[in-house]
């Protein structure tokens, strides 16, 4: 399969798109054309790795990895992705639990797939590939977990010291020797500038073979489309209906993967983007003007995005706002609404939701009666509430049990190296730790 940049560069094959992450012209890679499927194509696929193998095999055409697709997918989905029916008085509503991976959020899926692919393509014990990640909290943990202990691969995680939660810090700092955790004496923007400066430094780049694992890599999106395929197929077989999805949305990577699955013919009904108070997408649908802006801080912090990068992909694939708003709905949820949704979820469903997931449960409750009863609904749970216990526990008035993987991670010894936010400081620590 050929991949082109949204701005025109290409073609490249999957391997090259995975290696580069972003195209040379600054655009994002998309397959030239999407394969098309019918429900019957998945008749023999029982488990999620099997569904994924049917769905993703065409994307590997021309890749060195083609013969290894099944193994890559078994590695990626080492944990379940169940859809649990909710006890509601009207209709058929489920929660798609994307939080059973090692760091208890959906980013484990994309990071795991990317790690499985890149280590096969580029892993080298003599000259390891070094993944540089700047993180404001969640992404770094998922990437570190995915590359932990992989031979021939290293990760350097840069996070702003004192500006991530205690549990997040632990998830960034508890890995084996091939993960170097760097607490930067600065803000997230400093971490990001450092990564950019390091990548742009030719001699440093030759020495360490830098690569990135950021959320615009096509390798993060492809595996995400498979849990939408799996959940929609299961639902369709059970009910004969195409379920509607409500998806907590920030940079639009997770929702894009769902829309891509629908474009490929999977039985998916309406898709609703649930955003927090960052209204860039909501305003675009209302006014038809695309006006990216600085992000606002909200309780659903992993969705604090004022310039969602994957909109460039969505516009390329489907069209501009006048077309998009006929195919998608969007809701913007305030912090007050997030808080009250967390409380109601706990009372009505009997379990806690994380602040991101609460944007979806709020949006579902807020539907008009006609839309609510016209469809079966799958609400997407993007993280486990125990990751955001400082927000959720006071609202529900009780403590949340940790999922076993997270409990194990939190019990490990943590280590991190403190560095100043300068390229010489980063260079020195990389020489010492990765020489
Ligand atoms: C990253 C993240 C999101 C937003 O996903 P996008 O792909 O950026 O839209 C939502 N919830 C959680 C918990 C996240 O970590």
What form results from the Cα inertia axes? Answer: globular
Mean pLDDT: 95
State the secondary-structure class: alpha/beta
Helical stretch count? 19
Main sheet specs: 6 strands, mixed
Subunit arrangement of the protein: single chain
Provide keyphrases for this structure.
435 residues; five-stranded parallel sheet; 19 helices; globular; binds pyridoxal-5'-phosphate
Structure in words:
This protein is α/β, with parallel strands linked by helices and about 425 residues long. It is built from 19 helices and 13 strands. The strands form three sheets. Strands 3-4-12-9-10-11 form a six-stranded mixed beta sheet, with helices on both faces. Strands 8-5-6-7-13 form a five-stranded parallel beta sheet, sandwiched between helices. A two-stranded antiparallel ribbon has the order 1-2. Helix 2 (about 50-55) crosses helix 3 (about 70-75), helix 4 (about 105-120) packs across helix 5 (about 140-145) and helix 9 (about 220-240) crosses helix 10. The longest helix has 22 residues, at about 220-240. The radius of gyration is 21 Å and the shape is globular. It starts with a strand and ends with a helix. The model has no long low-confidence stretch (mean pLDDT about 95). Pyridoxal-5'-phosphate binds near residues 107 and 248. Pyridoxal-5'-phosphate (PLP) binds near residues 250, 252, 382 and 383.
């Amino acid at each position: 399969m050929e991949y082109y940049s949204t701005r025109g560069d290409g073609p490249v094959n999957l391997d090259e798109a995975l290696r580069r992450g972003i195209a040379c012209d600054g655009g994002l890679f998309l397959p030239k054309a999407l394969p098309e499927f019918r429900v019957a194509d998945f008749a023999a696929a029982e488990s999620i790795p099997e569904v994924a193998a049917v769905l993703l095999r065409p994307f590997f055409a021309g890749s060195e990895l083609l013969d290894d697709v099944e193994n890559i997918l078994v590695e990626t989905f080492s944990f379940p992705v169940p859809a649990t029916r909710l006890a509601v008085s009207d209709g058929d509503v489920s929660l798609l639990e994307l939080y059973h991976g090692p760091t208890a959020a959906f980013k484990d899926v994309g990071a795991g797939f990317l790690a499985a692919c890149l280590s096969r393509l580029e892993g080298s014990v003599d000259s390891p590939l070094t993944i540089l990640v700047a993180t404001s909290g969640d992404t770094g943990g998922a990437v570190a977990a995915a590359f932990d202990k992989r031979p021939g691969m290293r990760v350097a995680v840069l996070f702003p010291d004192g500006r991530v939660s205690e549990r997040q810090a632990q998830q960034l700092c508890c890995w084996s020797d091939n993960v170097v955790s760097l607490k930067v004496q600065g803000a997230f923007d400093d971490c990001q500038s450092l990564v950019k400066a390091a990548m742009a430094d030719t001699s440093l780049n030759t020495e360490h073979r830098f690569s990135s694992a950021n959320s615009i890599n096509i390798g993060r999106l492809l595996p995400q489309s498979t849990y939408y395929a799996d959940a929609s197929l299961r639902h369709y077989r059970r009910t004969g209906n195409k379920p509607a999805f409500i998806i907590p949305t920030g940079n639009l990577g997770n929702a894009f993967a769902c829309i891509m699955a629908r474009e490929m013919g999977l039985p998916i009904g309406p898709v609703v983007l649930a955003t927090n108070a960052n209204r860039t997408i909501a305003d675009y649908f209302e006014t038809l003007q695309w006006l990216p802006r600085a992000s606002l801080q909200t309780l659903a912090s992993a969705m604090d995005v004022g310039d969602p990068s994957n909109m460039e992909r969505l516009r390329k694939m489907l069209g501009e706002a006048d077309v998009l708003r006929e195919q998608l709905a969007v809701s913007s949820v305030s912090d007050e609404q997030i808080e009250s949704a967390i409380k109601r979820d706990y009372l009505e469903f009997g379990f806690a939701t994380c602040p991101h997931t609460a944007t979806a449960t709020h949006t579902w409750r807020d539907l008009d009666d006609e839309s609510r009863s016209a469809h079966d609904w799958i609400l997407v749970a993007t993280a486990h509430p125990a990751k955001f216990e400082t927000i959720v526990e006071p609202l529900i008035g009780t403590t949340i049990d940790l999922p076993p993987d997270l409990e194990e991670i939190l019990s490990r010894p943590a280590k991190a190296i403190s560095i100043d936010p300068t390229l010489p400081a980063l260079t020195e620590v990389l020489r010492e730790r990765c020489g």
